[in-house]
């Protein structure tokens, strides 16, 4: 209550009752579960819209075991010792096995396995 309301009675002070005040405070507590459900529905709808927008722009890379690929040379040598005019892609390499969708183990054409796994984002299909 502000000091002015002590001297001049406002409708808020005149019509105040303790019972109505407590009932008014409890009413939103009864609706908390409903508000949470509405928020969860809005979040799910938003996530679906974002997913649809993202997936619309993604181009699938159907790489299978035995395919020949080129790997990104910048990712292969992160130290940056390569020059500006060095080739961007190196290879070809053969996909030895698919670890997960989009993750591959590579081997050279001679059969020597490459130490780390490679993401499809850093690979490009090699056409002969």
Automatic annotation (TrEMBL):
Q: What is this protein called?
A: Rve domain-containing protein
Species annotation: Cephalotus follicularis (Albany pitcher plant)
């Amino acid at each position: 209550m502000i000091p002015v309301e002590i001297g001049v009675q406002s409708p808020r002070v005149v019509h105040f009752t303790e019972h109505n005040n407590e009932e008014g405070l409890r009413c939103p507590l009864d609706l908390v579960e409903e508000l949470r459900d509405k928020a969860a529905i809005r979040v799910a709808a938003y996530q679906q819209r974002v997913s649809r927008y993202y997936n619309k722009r993604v181009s699938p890379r159907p790489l299978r075991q035995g395919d020949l690929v080129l790997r990104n040379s910048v990712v292969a040598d992160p130290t940056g010792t390569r020059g500006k005019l060095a080739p961007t892609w190196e290879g070809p390499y053969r996909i030895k096995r698919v670890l997960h969708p989009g993750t591959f183990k590579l081997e050279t054409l001679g059969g020597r396995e490459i130490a780390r796994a490679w993401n499809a984002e850093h690979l490009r299909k090699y056409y002969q």
